[in-house]
Write a structure and sequence with these properties.
Strand order of the largest sheet: 1-2
Strand content: 5-15%
Bound molecules: zinc ion
Order of helices and strands: HHHHEEHEEH
Radius of gyration: 20 Å
Helix content: 40-55%
CATH class: Mainly Alpha
CATH architecture: Orthogonal Bundle
Number of strands: 4
CATH superfamily: Jann2411-like domain
CATH topology: Jann2411-like fold
């Protein structure tokens, strides 16, 4: 737990939210991992798409950052029960309008057609955002219950009561705080004052 957060977070259960978790502005800046085009290439390989992209350029990174901001803000709007602002709908829509990754079967395994580009991969991410935000699945969108943690996830548990981004991280922090509070309370009530 000493190395929190790891370089890339894959805990949201959703490709588009995993992209959001690579950083951003304000409260998301501490998660920033996309400092340059090679970082985006690494993320595309590490994420569930696992797509090798030969060359990521600066404009690809800029699009990824815009898409990421739109996903954060769109998700926040949904969590508040508000309509998603037009600007974010347009950003996500324009990335999704580009051709997405083309799957191919290689010896019984799904791969991506040779020469896949970052733009195609980002289109796949944007389409995932539309699939999530535009369906009943958005009702399962949650924010971590730790007030200091802005991470998001899709609650796939059957009862729909997942509360933490990670049990090992925020869930445990909560448990420890509660324990300490209880201990302090019992100590002060036991002291003769
Ligand atoms: Zn958390």
């Amino acid at each position: 737990m000493s190395t929190w957060p790891p370089r890339f977070l894959f805990l949201s259960g959703r490709l588009c939210l995993d992209l959001a978790h690579t950083g951003g502005e304000g409260q998301y800046a501490k998660f920033e991992r996309l400092h340059g085009p090679p970082d985006l290439a690494d993320w595309l390989m590490a994420c569930e798409l696992a797509v090798p992209v030969a060359r990521v350029r600066r404009p690809d990174l800029r699009i990824a950052l815009e898409l990421r901001a739109a996903i954060w803000k769109g998700a926040r709007a949904i969590l508040k029960g508000a309509a998603m602002p037009r600007a974010f709908v347009d950003t996500i829509g324009s990335v999704a309008a580009q051709p997405d990754l083309v799957p191919v079967l290689v010896r019984g395994t799904r791969r991506w057609s040779p020469g896949s580009t970052a733009r195609q991969a980002l289109s796949s991410v944007a389409r995932d955002a539309i699939a999530l935000f535009g369906s009943d699945e958005r009702k399962r969108l949650r924010e971590c219950r730790n007030p200091k943690c802005p991470l998001l996830f899709v609650d796939l548990s059957r009862p729909g009561r997942r509360a933490w981004c990670t049990m090992r991280r925020c869930g445990n922090l909560e448990k420890t705080t509660r324990y300490r509070r209880r201990r302090r309370a019992s100590r002060s009530s036991a002291s003769p004052e």
